[in-house]
Design brief:
Number of strands: 13
Distance between the termini: 106 Å
Strand order of the largest sheet: 5-4-6-13-7
Shape: globular
Strand content: 15-25%
Structural class: alpha/beta
Helix content: 25-40%
Radius of gyration: 38 Å
Largest sheet: 5 strands, mixed
Order of helices and strands: HEHEEEHHEHEHEEEHEHEHEEHHHHH
Number of helices: 14
C-alpha cells in the first residue's frame, strides 16, 4: 500500500514539471502592420475603414477541438488616391484688346483661384470689335464682353446675348473732338467726319446725340476705324471719334500731339447705363449657370481686392499683361478702379427698363423686350 502511494506521488510531480515548460516558439501577430499614412489628406484617410479586418485562423480539426488562442491578423492596403473633379472650362471673349476695364478678369484668370473653384478660364482677344457677339451668337465662345447699349441693339435684332454680370457700372463712351473744331456740344456736329469702332457708337450713340438738335445722321460722315482709334485720328482727316474708351484715349491722343475736347454721352440726354457687361448666349444659360455663378463670385472678390490694394493690383496686372503698362493706362488706373462694379452680379433692373424705353421712344430699336431677355442675375432664385 505504501509502495503504491509513493509511485503515485512521483508520477504527479513528473506531469506537473512537463506542463510548466514554455512553448517551443513565442506567439506573433500574423498579417501586415498597419502604419498611419501621415501624408494622406483627410479624405484619403477617411476613405480607409477605421476598423481593421480581423481574420481568425482556421480550426485544426485533427486536434479535436477549438484552437488554443485566436490569433488576429491585421490587413491594410493604402487607399487609392482621389482624383480631382474635372475643371469646367469657360471661354471668354474680350470686347477689345486687353485694357484697364478688363483688370478683374485678367487678375482672376492669373491668380489660380478659378482652378481651386473648379474652373478653367480661357480669355481670348477679338480680331475686330464686332467679333465677340458674332462668336457668342454662334456658340463658339461661352461668354463675351460688351456694352449695355450694344446689348439692347442685339436683342432687338433677334440675337441671343443676355447680361449675366456687370464689370463697369458707369458709362465709358464719349465723343472726342479735335480742339481745333471748336465743337461745344452735339449741336455742332453737322458737316463733320467722325470715326467709330462699334455698332452702338454708330447706330445708337451718335443718332441719340444729334437727333434732339434736328441733325440727321446723313449730315455726319462716319468712318469705321476698328481698334485703331488713335491711329485713325492722327493719320486720317477725322474731326472726332465716337469711342468706348474715354478714360484712356484722350491721353493717347495727347501723346501724339492731338488736343481734344470730350463730350460725355450721359450729359447730353443718353440715360445712365453700364459701361461693360458680361453676356452669355441665352440658349446655353441653363447649362452654364453654375460655372457662371462661380466666375461672378471670383470677379467680385478680385474687384474688392483691387480697390483695397490699388498699387499691388497694378503691379500684378502689368506682370500678367505687360502691354497694359502705358502712360495713358497709368494715368487712368485710379479713375478706372472707381468705376469697377464691386457687386458684378447685382442687376439694376430699373436701369435696363429705362434704357430700353428710351431707345424705343427715340426710334433706335423697333420694339421693347422684356427684362428677362435683356439681363439676369444667374444666382437669383
Amino acid at each position: 500500500m505504501c509502495l503504491l502511494l509513493v509511485l503515485g506521488l512521483l508520477t504527479s510531480l513528473t506531469w506537473a514539471e512537463e506542463s510548466l515548460e514554455p512553448p517551443e516558439a513565442p506567439l506573433t501577430l500574423g498579417g501586415d502592420v498597419m502604419v498611419p499614412d501621415l501624408d494622406a489628406t483627410p479624405e484619403q484617410q477617411t476613405a480607409t475603414p477605421s476598423l481593421p479586418r480581423i481574420e481568425e485562423p482556421p480550426v485544426d480539426e485533427t486536434a479535436g477541438g477549438e484552437p488554443d488562442t485566436p490569433v488576429p491578423s491585421v490587413t491594410h492596403a493604402p487607399a487609392e488616391p482621389l482624383e480631382p473633379p474635372p475643371l469646367e472650362s469657360l471661354t471668354i471673349m474680350l470686347d477689345w484688346y486687353p485694357g484697364l476695364h478688363h483688370a478683374a478678369l485678367i487678375l482672376a484668370a492669373g491668380n489660380g483661384l478659378p482652378q481651386r473653384e473648379g474652373l478653367e478660364l480661357a480669355i481670348r482677344t477679338p480680331a475686330d470689335p464686332g467679333a465677340p457677339l458674332r462668336l457668342l451668337n454662334a456658340n463658339l465662345v461661352d461668354l463675351a464682353l460688351t456694352h449695355q447699349l450694344q446689348l439692347h441693339l442685339q436683342v432687338d435684332r433677334g440675337k441671343s446675348p443676355v447680361r449675366v454680370a456687370t464689370l463697369v457700372d458707369t458709362p465709358l463712351a464719349g465723343i472726342l473732338m479735335r480742339e481745333t473744331t471748336g465743337v461745344e456740344g452735339p449741336e455742332d456736329l453737322a458737316g463733320l467726319t467722325l470715326g467709330y469702332a462699334t455698332e452702338d457708337g454708330r447706330d445708337i450713340l451718335l443718332p441719340a446725340l444729334i437727333a434732339p438738335h434736328g441733325i440727321a445722321q446723313a449730315e455726319v460722315s462716319m468712318v469705321e476705324t476698328g481698334f485703331a482709334l488713335a491711329t485713325a485720328m492722327t493719320e486720317q482727316s477725322l474731326d472726332g471719334l465716337v469711342t468706348p474708351l474715354r478714360l484712356t484715349l484722350p491721353r493717347q491722343l495727347a501723346d501724339r500731339g492731338v488736343s481734344t475736347r470730350q463730350l460725355n454721352v450721359e450729359k447730353h440726354g443718353i440715360p445712365f447705363h453700364d459701361g461693360l457687361i458680361l453676356v452669355a448666349n441665352r440658349d446655353r444659360l441653363v447649362r452654364l449657370r453654375e460655372p457662371i455663378i462661380e466666375l461672378v463670385d471670383i470677379l467680385r472678390d478680385t474687384t474688392l481686392w483691387m480697390i483695397e490694394n490699388p498699387e499691388m493690383a497694378w503691379e500684378a496686372l502689368v506682370e500678367l499683361e505687360p502691354t497694359i503698362d502705358t502712360p495713358a493706362n497709368r494715368d487712368a488706373w485710379s479713375a478706372t478702379l472707381m468705376r469697377l462694379s464691386a457687386q458684378p452680379a447685382a442687376l439694376d433692373s430699373r436701369r435696363y427698363r429705362q434704357v430700353e424705353a428710351y431707345l424705343h421712344e427715340n426710334g433706335l430699336i423697333e420694339s421693347i423686350s422684356p427684362l428677362e431677355r435683356l439681363a439676369v442675375d444667374p444666382g437669383a432664385g
